[in-house]
Amino acid sequence: MKPFFRATCLVLLMAILRGQPALAQPRPAGTWTLDRTANHEGLGSPVGMAYDASGNLYVANWSAGNVMRFAPTGERTVFASGLSGPSGLAISSKGDVYVASYNEDLVWRFTPRGDQAVFVRGLATPAGLSFDARGRLLIANRRTHQILAVRPDGAIDVAADGLQTPVGAVELPNGDLLVSNIAGGVSLVSGGLKARAINTDLRSPGPGIVAAGADAAYVVDYGGTTVSRIDRNGVREVIADGLSSPVGLASAPDGSLTVATWGANATFQIRRP
Fold it and tell me: Domain limits at 42?
């Protein structure tokens, strides 16, 4: 199995020597509350997560090689199995479920009924997935240090280049991208393809990154214990702490955040009062 979340001190040192910004002091946590009682347990190295229009939660289980579906009632079913290193997961406006296979360098597309087909091949260790406003699938293509944007017809555009081990990306309302790099902090892509590091405070940002309003994103720290809000200027606010290797993150229908951890192989909710 290919190494997934393996960052080295050398990479981080080189990033600092290249002039990335100094570590920012995080603001204290705001009004969020972490529910420390897991709502879904017994997972297998969960990574990508997303909710469909009916409120079902889909979870890509890396080591189990499957995608689980959890109904709002808590009932669980195996949505897809026999996958090799499923990592990122995203759901289109049509309800199709897209799952990146980190080991096979491709992305699968599943219909709501579970019909399976390859959407795009020839990738380079694809990690996190999300959709932009144009309906393109954003793929964190880790080995080429790029964010790719795949159109519905399969044509591929390069949305960002020159990153450092990207594992997740999310589009802001103005079209800019915020990118989590497992060995290079959080980057902003604005007005072109080139990225600019804005925060290097996290130990190893994971694939879990979701939009937080007009100019920020929520980001997990796989190498640490936190979920943070990081704005386009790099200002960080810790919204949850005490998690064991958080990896996946999704916006829930009720406005809370669902976070998946490898330490507990479970999901937890982060809520506003």
Answer: 9-271
Taking only the tens place, the pLDDT of each residue in 27-45 is 444 689 999 999 999 999 9
CA–CA distance, 125 with 145 (Å, rounded to integer):
10
Structure tokens belonging to residue 58: 């889909």
Contact 186, 180 (CB under 8 A): yes
**What mean pLDDT value characterizes the chain?**
91
One DSSP character per residue, 47-113 reads: EEEEE-TTS-EEEEETTTTEEEEE-TTS-EEEEE-S-SSEEEEEE-TT--EEEEETTTTEEEEE-TT
Number of domains within the chain? 1
In a domain, 230, yes or no: yes
Within a domain: residue 3? Answer: no
| pLDDT for res 156 | 98
